Amino acid sequence: MRNFTLALIGLLINTLTCSAQTEKESINETWKHFTGEVNGAEKVDFNDKSWQTVNLPHTWNAVDAYTEKKYYRGVGWYHKNLNLTQKYIGKKLFIHFEGVFLKASIYINGKFVGEHKGGYTAFSFDISNFVSIPGNNTIAVKVDSSKDLNLPPISGDYTMFGGIYRDVYLISTNQVHFDQMNLGSSGVFIETPLVNDNSANVKVRGSVSNQSNENKNLMIISKIIDKSGEVITEIKSKLKLAAGANGNFEQLSNKINNPNLWSTDNPYLYTVETTILSEDKTKTVLDFKNQPLGFRWFSFNADSGFSLNGKYLKLIGAARHQDYMGLGNALDNDLQRRDVELLKAMGGNFIRVSHYPQDPTIVEMCDKLGILVWEETPLGNTFNDNEDLKATCVSSLKEMIRQNYNHPSIIIWGYMNEVGLATSKLADEEKKKEVLEITAKFAKELEGVLRAEDKTRLSTMALNSGGTSYYKEYGFSNLPNTIGWNTYYGWYKGKFEDFGVFIDKVHKESPEINSIISEYGAGSDKRLHSLNPEQFDFSIEWQQLYHESYLNQIFSRKFIAGATVWNFIDFNAAGRQESTPRINNKGLLYNNRTPKDVYYLYQAWLVKSPVLHIASRDWQIRKGIQADSKDTTVTQPFKIYSNIDKVELFLNGNSLGVQTSKNGFSIWDVPFINGKNFLLAKGESANKIYEDALQIDFEIVPAILNQVKDKDFQIAVNVGSNCFFTDPINNVTWMPDQPYKAGGFGFVGGEIYRPTEGKIGHQSEVFQTRNVPLYQTFRYGLSDYKFDVADGEYEIELHFAGFGDKLSKSIYDVSESEEKGNETSQFNVLLNGSLALENFCPELQNGSLNAVYKTFVVQAKKLKGLTISFEKLKGKPFINAIKVRRLN
């Protein structure tokens, strides 16, 4: 009987203790949503039966942002019924939103609770006095994603998805609890004033709220717990709080000997468990918080780069946007975690959480996996001298820091990205000077806020490399502890090697700057491949060359503390056009998180385990022209990314030799046969064999076309382009343009369209086609295009997309020259001398930037083949693509 009584008492105490502590429950399920403004939607009796039922996270731009340049930015409403049972009697209740874009107004049971401005940080409201317990309660949330020059981001090269796109929680606490209203934070903050190889200590500070009607004597206990669950030290302090008052506490531990240090290779995490106890006979647990703790120290040096725990470390990784095709930015936590796992698997030890604070699971995973973090607020491109904007920028900065303060992975806070970019393009020099002076003044204010909030980490801003003069003139580059440089030499402008010239100049002229390369990257489209890649052609091969060069340049300069690729994924940017409209395709992975070839280049450089990857994964349907009519093979280069010293490549079971991997790759000349080609790469490391295999379907195009009488003969040409283009739906491959040579095919006269020096093709979206890149490149001023085919009947497709002066250039294209348009062209097209298109003007007859193709049937006779002739009437004749198909 005695044992039963003791057990019952223990159960009651445990129940009391558990019920007294904070509970956090997600309330993501079964919300009602309507996209648009609705009068009276906050009222309790509002009828929302016709509204869409959704679960959170949710965005209303999951479709239109991927299909339209001007996606919806405006008001949307969310409703939820919340049944509160008797267990909440006597509790304080809070509603916590992890992220709502851009402005949120909260109503409970028809009453206004509060408003939050800023789309990327969490916020909480005390709803205790607004709810009925027990009872059914209505939550109404008005979300406004309208573009607002008084709210950051004012602009940005990414989609501003509207909605409640992160988790929402109901939090219940005792009347005495850790402060739940500390800018969305936990209310408890951890620091490590002393850390070295031999010893460390911990400072715990925070705020406690006594919302009861009694004075309280409290005990605050913080326990430092290691991975095995052992308490290695304990700190106690007392706190007296009057009824209705808040009070602060601060605790410092004794020295902890031989701490396990947190590092990128060994991300050892302790836990700080901080508890509020009633200082009476019951010693009731009123609240507790668990926070991560990592013992580490770090430093930047303008000459010798970055060190972690006293050891040199090159920071290398990627910037990350947060969207996913079909979901927008409303990702569940598993998808968020997966991105960090993919970055770690690549060998990355650094992430730029850009251009805004992201889901809390991102930084949590960085703590666990050992990835150092730069996190930033969403102020970029330009700035307005507006008090509301300033206030929101300051509050967002404070929220970001306090909400993420306890994560050991975070080493840098950022507060501006390319903030002078749009301003620098103003034609009015006086206005430009005025805005830059105001912006620099506010940057100084934000720097002060940051340093007041967190003295343990460093500050930064990302500056575009083209703005070094005005950044220096107005003092931007002298403010933060570190500077991030956004550089795109070899993509938007210049050569790969210009990157090294630029950063060496910065280091020489400003030797005090701690430099990070915060952005570098090149776009790629899996449909485009080239044996002769060139700048801005969006081929997979140019992206490979770009990253191969940058990795060499970055690692050869110790003073570069680190670098983050722009971007980890292909992300949604609704204003972008280029080869994949509404997608910025500079990612190391596609938007669905399938790795591109360059992902494995980084693996070959960064990971310690063996890597072996055939680096033509997206080019399995290939074509090539015989060098000689007697050849039975066509030789093309083939690349493999690997960190294994020696790799052997086999083609259809025959060895093509062994090569040594240098700088992460090796290249073979592969003699492809017509039909299926089976490639097998082999390498040995630590007495273990590693293999990678790929099948290539290769079509050999005869050097002499009139020898081909196959009724299935077809040849398609990507005129004015250096790239093969493969339509992924029908697998038709369009071959690169080439000059005419007797017996083959090609152009006579004319030139490739280049809107600016060093670039091929334009970047404006072309409509009425799924194959946009085919119509962004063209040859103009040509006289003929010839195909020396055998006699017979052929179908000819002629593809055009005129644009006149309708081209647009993104402000994020940092090349100095402007894109030139093309004067309106009017011309005749003749097929084997017969007039096919008369007074033809594609842009006037079909509309600018609209794809159009004309199909004709033509007879080739007397071994004269097919000649497509262009007669100039006005401007210069042009053509984008040609396809010839034999009918009989």
Plain-language structure description:
The protein has 888 residues and is α+β, with helices and mostly antiparallel strands. It contains twelve helices and 53 strands. The strands form eleven sheets. Strands 23-24-25-26-27-28-29-31 form an eight-stranded parallel beta barrel. A hairpin with a 6-residue loop joins strand 43 and strand 44. The chain is globular, with a radius of gyration of 32 Å.
Q: What's the arrangement of strands in the largest beta sheet?
A: 23-24-25-26-27-28-29-31
- Computed structural class: alpha+beta
Radius of gyration: 32 Å
Distance between the termini: 101 Å
Largest sheet, in brief, is:
8 strands, parallel, barrel
Unreliable sequence segments: 1-19
Percentage of residues assigned to helices = 10-25%
* Rough outline: globular
Count of helical regions: 12
Report the mean per-residue pLDDT as an integer: 93
Strand fraction: 35-45%
Instruction: Find the count of extended strands (DSSP E, 2+ residues).
Output: 53
Essential attributes:
single chain; 888 residues; alpha+beta; eight-stranded parallel beta barrel; seven-stranded mixed β-sheet; 12 helices; globular
Outline:
The chain is an alpha+beta fold and 888 residues long.
Task: List strands and helices in order, with pairings.
Layout: H1 2-20, E1 23-26, E2 31-35, E3 52-54, H2 64-67, E4 75-84, E5 92-97, E6 103-108, E7 111-117, E8 123-126, E9 135-144, E10 168-173, E11 176-178, E12 188-195, E13 199-210, E14 216-225, E15 231-241, E16 246-252, E17 256-257, E18 270-278, E19 285-293, E20 298-301, E21 305-308, E22 311-312, E23 315-320, H3 333-345, E24 350-353, H4 360-369, E25 372-376, H5 387-404, E26 410-417, H6 429-453, E27 458-464, H7 468-473, E28 482-486, H8 497-509, E29 514-519, E30 528-529, H9 540-555, E31 560-565, E32 571-572, E33 583-584, H10 597-606, E34 612-614, E35 621-625, E36 633-642, E37 646-651, E38 654-660, E39 665-673, E40 675-685, E41 688-701, E42 714-718, E43 724-726, E44 733-736, E45 745-752, H11 772-776, E46 779-787, E47 792-800, E48 826-831, E49 834-840, H12 842-846, E50 852-860, E51 866-874, E52 878-879, E53 881-886
Parallel strand pairs: 23-24, 23-31, 24-25, 25-26, 26-27, 27-28, 28-29, 29-31, 35-41, 42-44
Antiparallel strand pairs: 1-10, 2-3, 2-4, 4-9, 5-8, 5-10, 6-7, 6-9, 11-13, 12-13, 13-16, 13-17, 14-15, 14-18, 18-19, 20-21, 21-22, 30-43, 32-33, 34-36, 36-39, 37-38, 37-40, 40-41, 42-53, 43-44, 45-46, 46-51, 46-52, 47-50, 47-53, 48-49, 48-51
Helix pairs in contact: 3-4, 5-6, 9-10
